[in-house]
Specification:
globular, transmembrane helix, GalNAc-T, signal-anchor, alpha/beta, five-stranded mixed sheet
C-alpha cells in the first residue's frame, strides 16, 4: 500500500512538473514572438483594414478557421512584459490555476485605484439624479479570490448607492476553498447589497447568468465578468441611455488589464464585429463617426457585443427572449443576442464615457468539450438567424453541416412572434462591412 502511495505521489509530481515546463515554454515562445512583432506593422482589423492605435482587449476565440489558417490566430491572448519571470514557480502555478499572475493579484489585494481613462469631455457630462435601479449579475467558477473581490469592491466604491439595487453572485460549482466560507466572511462588509447563489451542478456561463437574472429585482440587468474593475462614473451613462429608450442595450468601453502585470490600460474607441467564421473581433471606429457635437463621447453603434459586459432593461431582456437556454457552457451567446437585438427592433451601443477594465486571461479553452459547445451554440445561431447566408459559414466549414445543434423550434417561433427582420436587412443597415468579407477564404 505504501509503495502504491509513493508511486501516485511521484506520478502526480511528474505530471505537474511537465505541465509547468510546457507552460514555461509556451509563455517564453509567445514572449519571443511578441518581441519580434514590435518591429513589424501593428495588427490589422479584418473588416475595415485599419490599424488600431493601441492594443485592444480580446477574448479567446475557439470557433476556428481551417487548420491551414490556424497559425495566424494561434497563441495566448496575453501580452507579456519584457521582464516577465518565466522561472518563478509560484507565478507559473498561478497561470496554470487562474490564467494570469495571481502573485501580483494577491499583492494588489481586494481594492485598488485605477486611472480614470475617460475622455476629458466625459467629465463635463451630467446625468439625471433619478435613474433606474441596477441589478449586477456576476457569475464565477474557480475565480482567483482577489480578482473576484476587486470586481465587487470596485462596484461598491464607484456606484451610487441609490441606483445599486444589488449585486448577484452566481457560484457555478467552484472547487476552491477560498471561494466558500472565506468569501462569505468578506462579503459581510457589503451585507444588504449582495446575494450569492451557489449552483448544485455546473451550469456554464450562459445558464448561470439566467439563474442570476431570475433572482434580480432591479430595473436594469447589468452583466459583468468576475475579473474586471469598474472605473469612475461607469454606471450612470448606461442607466441614462436605457432610461431614454428601454430597447437600448448598452456596453461599457472595455479597458484592458494585462494578465502578467495587471496593469490597467485604456482602450481606444472601438466597436464589436465578427466574420463569417463567427469569430468576434474588435473593429476600429472611423473618425467621421465622432465629428458631431459629442465628439469622442459619442455612443458607438456596434454590430455585436463582446458578451462579457452589458446592460439591458430587465423586462426587455425577457420580452426579447433572454439567452438561448439550450446553448451550452460558453460562447456564441453574444453574437446570437446581438443579432436578435438589431433584427427585432432594439439597438446596441458602446458608450465611451462608461469604462470597465477587463482582465485578459491566458485561457486554454480549446478543449474538446469547449469546442463542441461553441460549435453547437454557433450552429443554433446560424440556423435561426442567418437565413440563406448560413451557406457563407458552411462554405468555409463544410463539416459543420452535419453537426448537431438540438431543437431550435422554440427560437424559430420566438423570431416569428417578435416580427424580426431578415439577416439581409442586418447586412444592409447594421453591418455592411461583413459583405466585403464574403469572398475571403
Amino acid at each position: 500500500m505504501r509503495n502504491v502511495t509513493v508511486q501516485c505521489l511521484l506520478s502526480g509530481t511528474l505530471v505537474l512538473g511537465i505541465l509547468s515546463a510546457l507552460l514555461c515554454i509556451r509563455l517564453h515562445l509567445y514572449h519571443v514572438t511578441q518581441q519580434q512583432k514590435t518591429t513589424q506593422e501593428p495588427p490589422f482589423i479584418w473588416s475595415l483594414d485599419k490599424k488600431l492605435q493601441q492594443p485592444v482587449p480580446r477574448e479567446p476565440v475557439i470557433f476556428e478557421r481551417p487548420e491551414e489558417n490556424k497559425a495566424e490566430n494561434d497563441g495566448s491572448v496575453l501580452k507579456f512584459a519584457q521582464d516577465f519571470n518565466y522561472t518563478d514557480q509560484e507565478v507559473i502555478q498561478g497561470f496554470l490555476k487562474y490564467g494570469f499572475n495571481a502573485v501580483i493579484s494577491k499583492k494588489l489585494g481586494n481594492r485598488r485605484h485605477v486611472p480614470d481613462t475617460r475622455n476629458e469631455m466625459c467629465l463635463k457630462k451630467h446625468y439625471p439624479t433619478r435613474l433606474p435601479t441596477a441589478s449586477i449579475v456576476i457569475c464565477f467558477h474557480n475565480e482567483e479570490f482577489h480578482a473576484l473581490f476587486r470586481t465587487i469592491s470596485s462596484i461598491m466604491a464607484l456606484t451610487p448607492h441609490q441606483v445599486l439595487e444589488e449585486i448577484i453572485l452566481v457560484d457555478d460549482m467552484s472547487e476552491f476553498d477560498d471561494l466558500k466560507e472565506k468569501l462569505d466572511y468578506h462579503l459581510e462588509a457589503f451585507r444588504g447589497k449582495i446575494k450569492i447563489i451557489r449552483n448544485k451542478k455546473r451550469e456554464g456561463l450562459i445558464r448561470a447568468r439566467l439563474i442570476g437574472a431570475a433572482r434580480a429585482s432591479g430595473d436594469v440587468l447589468v452583466f459583468l465578468d468576475s475579473h474586471c474593475e469598474v472605473n469612475k462614473v461607469w454606471l450612470e451613462p448606461l442607466l441614462t441611455a436605457i432610461a431614454e429608450d428601454r430597447r437600448m442595450v448598452v456596453c461599457p468601453m472595455m479597458d484592458s488589464i494585462e494578465g502578467d502585470t495587471l496593469k490597467y490600460n485604456p482602450s481606444p474607441v472601438v466597436r464589436g464585429a465578427f466574420n463569417w467564421y463567427l469569430q468576434f473581433e474588435w473593429d476600429t471606429v472611423l473618425s467621421y463617426e465622432m465629428d458631431g457635437p459629442e465628439g469622442p463621447t459619442t455612443p458607438i453603434r456596434s454590430p455585436v457585443m463582446a458578451g462579457g459586459m452589458f446592460a439591458i432593461n430587465r423586462h426587455y431582456f425577457y420580452e426579447i427572449g433572454q439567452f438561448d437556454k439550450e446553448m451550452n457552457f460558453w460562447g456564441g451567446e453574444n453574437l446570437e443576442l446581438s443579432l436578435r437585438i438589431w433584427m427585432c427592433g432594439g439597438q446596441l451601443y458602446i458608450l465611451p464615457c462608461s469604462r470597465v477594465g477587463h482582465l485578459n486571461k491566458w485561457s486554454n479553452r480549446n478543449t474538446n468539450e469547449s469546442r463542441r459547445a461553441l460549435i453547437y451554440n454557433n450552429l443554433r445561431l446560424v440556423h435561426v438567424w442567418l437565413d440563406e447566408y448560413k451557406e457563407q459559414v458552411f462554405s468555409r466549414r463544410p463539416s459543420l453541416k452535419s453537426s448537431p445543434y438540438g431543437n431550435i423550434s422554440e427560437r424559430v417561433e420566438l423570431r416569428k412572434q417578435l416580427g424580426c427582420k431578415s439577416f439581409q436587412w442586418y447586412l444592409e443597415n447594421i453591418f455592411p462591412e461583413l459583405e466585403a468579407y464574403k469572398g475571403s477564404q
